[in-house]
Structures are given as structure tokens and as C-alpha cells.
Request: fold
Amino acid sequence: MPGVAEVASIGGFVKQYQVQLDPNKLLAYGIPLSTVIGKVKMSTNEVGGRVLNLSGADYMIRGLG
Reply:
């Protein structure tokens, strides 16, 4: 494209995780589905980032969960 100096791709495809549960085992252990959902949400806290430019140097910033 005319006038575009650079295109920087940061990140990638949205990650997707699938958790397959056995309802009989959850029942046997007395673990409600809401507990599993809460634990999965708490364990995946990665966030997107950006590039920070300081004194002519680029630093890629991201948060890791």
C-alpha cells in the first residue's frame, strides 16, 4: 500500500482450549462444574501486548498468566 512504512504483526491466532470432562467422575469426586469452569478461567490469564519504543529501541510487552 502506498504510504505504509511497516506492518508489524503481534500475537497470532486466538488460542482455544478444549476441556473434556467426565460427568460421572465429577459426581464421584463431588466437584461441581462451576468449580472446574472457575479454575480454568483463573489459570489462563495471559493478555495481549504491544510494542513500546524507548530511545529508538522497540520492546515487546506482554502479560503472562
In short: DSSP finds two helices and two strands in the chain. The radius of gyration is 20 Å. Residues 3 and 30 are 61 Å apart (CA to CA). The beta strands are 47-54, 57-63.
